[in-house]
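Budget justification aside, the reviewers requested a transparent look at the raw inputs and outputs of the sequence design task funded under Objective 1. We therefore reproduce one unedited record. The lines immediately below are the structure tokens for a 206-residue chain.
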């Protein structure tokens, strides 16, 4: 009942604190199924990206997050499950027969869009870590879903690790052109191409 109010408060605060701007450089905010893939430097990344979407798109877009972090407290569980309708994945993969991508595949089968971070972990340095293979397998399983690179700039500087109050820096979320897995394209080439497309949106590369 209160989840829409909480979502509005969180997104409004995220935009106010960061002065966030959404730059739709290669695509428009259209209601089509998409996999938004972004760089990852902060736990607030998906919040800012989600807040950058128009309200209509937010309802159909679910952030993918690690269950180990978001299941630690009742507040975190409430936020990720009830407010953001997140897709939780087990990054530890306790049972080798389990497919860690299955929750994402189920969400795509349901018609949802996703927000993912193909580096697999937070990167506190400049640039990008090598991409994990999950993006490739999602693209192969759901070729009709548009792959949209999104560069999140400055969020790690607005709220660096260990700082209580944010720094007055502007953040941007830059949305690039849609990508798809090409016929016959192997995993290594695909991951390199999508990584390059994301990196090209970084301010120092533009």
């Amino acid at each position: 009942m209160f989840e829409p109010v909480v979502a509005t408060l969180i997104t409004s605060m995220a935009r106010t604190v960061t002065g966030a701007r959404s730059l739709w450089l290669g695509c428009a905010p259209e209601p089509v199924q998409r996999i938004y893939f972004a760089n990852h430097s902060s736990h607030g990344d998906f919040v800012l990206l989600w807040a950058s979407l128009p309200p209509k798109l937010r309802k159909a877009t679910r952030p993918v997050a690690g269950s180990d972090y978001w299941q630690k407290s009742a507040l975190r569980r409430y936020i990720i499950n009830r407010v953001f309708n997140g897709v939780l994945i087990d990054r530890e993969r306790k049972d080798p027969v389990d497919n860690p991508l299955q929750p994402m595949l189920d969400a795509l089968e349901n018609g949802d869009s996703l927000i993912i971070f193909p580096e697999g972990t937070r990167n506190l340095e400049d640039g990008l870590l090598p991409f994990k293979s999950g993006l490739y397998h999602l693209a192969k399983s759901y070729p009709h879903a548009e792959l949209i690179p999104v560069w999140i700039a400055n969020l790690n500087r607005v709220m660096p690790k260990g700082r209580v109050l944010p720094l007055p820096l502007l953040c941007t979320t830059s949305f690039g052109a849609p990508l798809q897995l090409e016929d016959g394209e192997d995993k290594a080439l695909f991951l390199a191409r999508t990584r390059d497309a994301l990196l090209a949106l970084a301010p120092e590369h533009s």
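The chain has nine helices and seven strands. The two ends are 43 Å apart (CA to CA). Computational costs for records of this kind are itemized in the attached budget.
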